[in-house]
Amino acid sequence: MPSRLRGRLRDLLGWLFLASLALTLWLGHGPSGPRGAIAAQPHTPDQLIQEGVSLYAAGDYLSAIDRWQAALGGYDPSAQPRRALVHENLARAYGQVGQSAEALAAWTAAAAIYATLGDRTQVGRLLSEQAQVHLSLGQHRRAIALLCLPPPEASPTDLDACEPGGALPLALAAGDALGQVAALGSLGEAYRLRGDYAEAETLLTRGLELARQSGYAQFEGPLLNGLGSLFNRRSRVDYRRAEAARQLGLTGTAEGFSAQAEGYERQAQQRFEQALALAQQWGDLAAEWQTRLNLLPIYRQQNNGAAVMAARQRLSDLSGQLPASRGLAYGAIALGRSYQLGDRSVGCVAPGSEAAAEAWLERGAAIGDRIGDVRAASFALGELGHLRECQGDLAAAMRLTQQAQGLATQGLGAADSLYLWQWQAGRIYRLQGKVEAALAAYNQAVTTLESIRTEILVADPDVQFDFRDTVEPIYRELIELQLAGVQPLQAAAKQNQAAAAPSPLAAALVTADALRLAELQNYFGNDCILSPVAQARVDLLAQSTDTAVISSVVLSDRTALILTLPSQPPQLVWVEDSARLRDTVVQFRLGLEAFYTEPYDTALAEQLYAQLVAPLEPALRAAQITTLVFIHDGFLRSVPMAALHDGRQFLIENYAIATTPALTLTAPESRRAESPQALVLGSSQAVVAAGRRFPPIPAVPQEVAAVLNELPGSRALLDEAFGEAQLQQALQAAPYAILHFATHGQFSLDPADNFIITGQGETVTFGQLEAFIQAGGPGRQQVDLVMLTACDTAAGDDRATLGLAGVAIRAGARSAIASLWQADDATTAQITQDFYRFLKDPALNKAQALQQAQILALRRGGSVTPGKWAPLILVGNWL
């Protein structure tokens, strides 16, 4: 992500820590004058440097830059130490006004000079400076590469494994304790911003211990702030988890997450208060300002009104004593936003606090204007526009929003915050009843987002929860606008009359597909770069003349179902009351998971059938559809559609069923091998992994034997023979069309917790699995199918089901069959055997083979309830 402010994907308060860790504070506390006893003459380069230092201290960074640029031009090329000093000062000044590219160039130039002078200590320190700039741009990998790039097989905290030439190896070789502290702090910050909290805590703690041991007490504050920010983020994540669990009625789970969140919050507060005491001890007003800003959201979370008031008053006093700077501008904006209700991005200011919020935002805008930081000014004006939006002064809101848009495009290397103000303009137009203008503004916002989708959603898993407040609503509100004038199940002839203009439903499908890509990119983060296939939708539908695609979009009050039939325009059905539908879905899932309850009550299955399928039945029958492909949204991803019931039969008895996260992410053609071979991995014994005990799966040996029997030439690794190393070796030794895992696994709201468990108790993530497959060589044929028969996905957890939806993509396979929950293992083993037997029939595709296997299971009678056969779902290419 280009900066911690970009897109408001994280609170401005959190961003301010970055400045407190910067080596501007650590190495010299700001720009310096000429080193050595030299008498400066008027208008000489040395005099210009001194003038720049005075201007910098007064907060006039642009004038300081002018002086130092002039000094740089006045020095003879042989005056290398002086030129290096000027470059350092320029880099600090550029950083203060938000000119990151110029700051990087200046740091790089200074480091190059020190390298020619053989000053490896200074080179290492300036690499840490460069890394800080990259961190401010969200470029964590580049920062890590400059600081300590470990080889792939090494732990990030194995500092002895760093590649030579980085800041930390240089500091270690030179015995430069200060350089080591700087590199450890910056490296810890890089891993914190990536969401690698355990590694970040280790590195920041090491840096803190070294600072104390080496007598650098004044550098403890930034490291304590880093640890505080780490624990504060963990606390926010767990508070969100508790909120989600509470909505599902999972009271015990919610209480557990809340207790964990409170523990992290206490640790964060403790670190911040320690940093605050140090700042006061050293009389460092800038550090005190930043630390109090970090404490403010904790006081708000605790509903500690007295502490909030005291913090705001002290921050007000400090703001009058500090020079204008980027940190002061962003702090003022953060203070303005701190009056908003709740912690959502577009929350409105609490009644009675508008004047205080406005004063801080106007101050942020003024500071941004004074120091020439157009990004800060853009955010301040945009927030002022949002304040007017909440107050109902729509004309003023639009004027300020347009000013913010204009500034967002000035001198920036990326779209930056532009999409925020385009979205805001769309909301304001909508409130004014200007539907066409609102549509245009929302489309601009989505277009801008699409242009930076990978950049903004890849760089930081830390945004995973904020995404739902600051990015996702843009797509959903645009879809709502696009569908506003569409009549349900409108006739094709009526749509064809407007052939010259795109169908609103078609446009809504494009937006929905873009939303799916954004959700998955946000979920997987920088661990997986999604590459949509533009022609996939057309190719897949062209090959499937008996297939219908049903897309769902969950909006605030109702849910849209969009049906696409072969050679026909899309059709729309509305399901009223999204909240009630979600409750029904969760109860349906929980009822299915209790598959030991007999006889099975089909009431909820029939209720969902009536809402999600029955309205589409006439069109499906008329088009002679035999396969349904669902592109579900939100909580609907957790529904095993096969188990819906029309009062006489289950849905699987009438249709083959598949699901896919997005057609543009689905491999567009079939590549079925005539005699497919599988690598079969199984674990039947109880194991302890990832901090929990997983029970035995007694039917696994039977399942493994059945696969080997149905697919001659396959290979199996069972129990102790199935380890991470053995899996990697087997995948490198030979290509397999099918990977079959008869072992425990899980899909979680955190993609780092999506894994399968080996027979040796190791966890293998799907990212690792993809890497093992790719290690076979560039010419290796893509895996056609990954089968996961004993995974578990939390009911109703929208983010956890993203992992399930994207399993084929993440594993590098064309399609996957995975279980929504760990079902009856004997039934699963039988379905597996039947599936592979049907799959050998060239007349059946994968969806139809699974359909036939599940029909056999449900018709065996006895105690085979749908909870035993329905959890296996096909994801990805169904052909």
Structural class: alpha/beta
* Residues in β-strands, percent: 5-15%
CATH topology of the domain at 678-876: Rossmann fold
Number of helices: 38
Radius of gyration: 30 Å
Short description:
The protein has 879 residues and is α/β, with parallel strands linked by helices. 56% of the residues lie in helices and 10% in strands.
Q: Could you please describe the fold and organization of this structure?
A:
Helix 5 packs antiparallel against helix 6, helix 6 runs antiparallel to helix 7 and helix 16 packs antiparallel against helix 17 (354-371). This protein is α/β, with parallel strands linked by helices and 879 residues long. 56% of the residues are buried. Strands 6, 9, 10, 11, 12, 13, 14 and 15 form an eight-stranded mixed beta sheet that branches. Strands 3-2-1-4-5 form a five-stranded mixed beta sheet, with helices on both faces. The longest helix is centred in the first third of the chain and has 32 residues, at 251-282. Among the domains are: 218-315; 536-665, Nucleotidyltransferase, domain 5; 678-876, Rossmann fold. A hairpin with a 7-residue loop joins strand 10 (738-747) and strand 11. The chain is 56% helix and 10% strand. It starts with 11 loop residues before the first helix and ends with a strand. Mean pLDDT is 86; it is low at 1-29, 35-41, 460-464 and 490-501. The chain is globular and about 95 Å long.
List keywords for this structure.
879 residues, alpha/beta, Nucleotidyltransferase, domain 5, Rossmann fold, 8-stranded mixed sheet, 10% strand, disordered N terminus
